[in-house]
Write a structure and sequence with these properties.
Number of helices: 14
Shape: globular
Number of strands: 10
Helix content: 25-40%
Strand content: 5-15%
Strand order of the largest sheet: 1-8-7-6
Radius of gyration: 20 Å
Length: about 400
């Protein structure tokens, strides 16, 4: 696994086109989303992609089998972990548990502390959830930096965190998630990205393609274009969209989108579990080339180097249930990086929230100045909404069917 040097993190620049300076960013182009399963494990070591992403659920499963990022992924691969998982899983992770997982798993980059932000929430709830994401992101970056002994003691005491989670610098860099349905809400996370000197910001795209009333691909494109204007082209990673071409694809996205992570595309192209190592490498090289061309970034995948490397994992994947003893839960508070501590709050969509059918729309609700008009999905039945949510939970929750990228 590559090491992240916090002192030399490339900074976003507005003086040159993001795609022209793409080699300065830690990741660009195609990023396959990975689960803890045998076929994905074999794919990684046969193909050796420049970067790969997993989520909190699968990172936790790896740790339950004593597998860190360095153990599961090949050394050439930059490892990203994202907190974008289904609400029912997300609520299980306190700030301490996220921090503990990041410390133990040791990825190169982490997309921290996601909270649900839906258009059918009232404006105050959305604003509070965005604030929680921002505070958790600042906290994660603060704790993972090199703290003085006095500051480490303050953080540990104020938040009742075990001291071993606070001391010592980490090689993990933070990539903030841009949340919010309006310019004002997004501005909170856009400022946070600059505050932590993040080389990239991240936008979660899966929800646009899987939740009725979200506006689908046009709404995603509109929001990405708005973020481009609001941030003067701050470099972006899109999570949940990996189609290089077609009607709903990476083509035509704003110029600051330099990387894309997804699951369906690489699995369909590569067919892990039924292809030889050579076939997987050739298929992934074709996909990576098309994604790089769509995003107009340099191709980082080295097919020849991969072909000349060992194409089998260093050992078999343990299929036992694993041991969760080291993944204890802790106090559900944060706030160490700012002046105002905040409570954990609910990371789950409230049970009494209005449904997407009743909501004017999920993109902006009735509260947002950026609210979009009603979409064609607004008339779906409750059964269809439930089916879609089950599909998203299955896709993103870590079952063998995949981690999902909206089917595109």
């Amino acid at each position: 696994m590559t090491q992240h040097d916090r002192s030399s993190t490339p900074q976003a620049s507005t003086d040159e086109e993001p795609r022209e300076q793409a080699t300065r960013f830690p990741v660009t182009g195609a990023i396959p989303r990975i689960e803890r399963q045998q076929s994905h494990y074999e794919f990684l070591w046969a193909v050796r992609p420049p970067a790969a992403m997993t989520n909190l659920v699968h990172a936790r499963r790896m740790l339950m089998h004593d597998e860190s990022a360095q153990d599961f992924f090949p050394p050439e691969t930059t490892v990203l972990v994202t907190s974008t998982i289904p609400d029912e899983d997300l609520r299980e992770f306190s700030f301490e548990e996220e921090l503990r997982l990041v410390r133990q798993f040791d990825p190169d980059h982490y997309l921290p502390f996601d909270f649900p932000v839906y258009g059918d929430m009232d404006a105050d709830t959305r604003a509070e959830h965005v604030r929680q994401v921002a505070a958790g992101t600042l906290d994660m970056d603060h704790v993972l930096s090199r703290l003085s002994a006095a500051e480490a003691s303050r953080v540990a005491n104020d938040l009742s965190l075990p001291r071993e989670l606070v001391i010592g610098e980490s090689d993990t860099g933070v990539l903030p998630l841009i949340k919010g349905t309006s310019r004002g809400e997004r501005a909170v996370m856009e400022r946070t990205a600059r505050d932590v000197d993040a080389p990239l910001m991240a936008k979660y795209a899966t929800q646009y393609m899987t939740v009725p009333g979200s506006g689908n691909y046009p709404a995603l494109r509109d929001d990405l274009e708005a973020i481009y204007e609001e941030t003067a082209g701050y470099p972006m990673l899109v999570v949940g969209l990996l189609s290089p071409s077609g009607r709903y694809s990476l083509e035509g996205l704003p110029n600051n989108v330099v990387a894309a992570a997804g699951g369906s595309q690489w699995r369909e192209r590569v067919s892990p579990g039924s292809s030889t190592p050579e076939e997987m490498r050739e298929a992934y090289h074709e996909l990576a080339t098309e994604v790089a061309e769509a995003l107009k970034v340099p191709l980082r995948y080295d097919l020849d180097a991969a072909a000349n490397s060992r194409d089998t994992p260093p050992g078999p994947l343990d299929t036992s249930p694993g041991n969760a003893a080291t993944l204890g839960e802790g106090p559900a508070v944060a706030g160490c990086a700012g002046d105002t501590a905040y409570a954990w709050g609910g990371r789950k969509r409230p049970d009494d929230a209005i449904s997407p059918i009743e909501a004017r729309n999920r993109r902006g609700g009735g509260e947002s100045s950026d609210a979009a008009p009603k979409t064609e999905n607004a008339g779906v039945t409750a059964e269809e909404v439930a089916r879609t949510r089950r599909r998203e939970a299955t896709a993103e929750g870590g079952e063998p069917t995949g981690d999902g990228d909206g089917g595109v």
